[in-house]
Give the backbone structure.
Amino acid sequence: MRKYELVCILQPDLDETAFNGAVDKVKGWISEAGGTVDKVDVWGKRRLATPIRKQRDGQYVLLNITMPNKATAELERSLRFLEPVMRHMLSVVE
């Protein structure tokens, strides 16, 4: 089991229930893969450096997670197909 940081940029026009639903879906995928969510830090709406999908803003969320190394590919694949997620970055914490 390794520790990871997952940063997701979600669509800026999501209401609170849709935002929480997307975050809960990601947390569910991590749990299904045998991992745990250690901490969720919502950074809120921020201005993007460059537009993504014609959007100038995005809602940021940071998840500190622990999960098996083999499960990261499936998690990233699932994140690519989750509509509210505009961008994501998964990195190993040393």
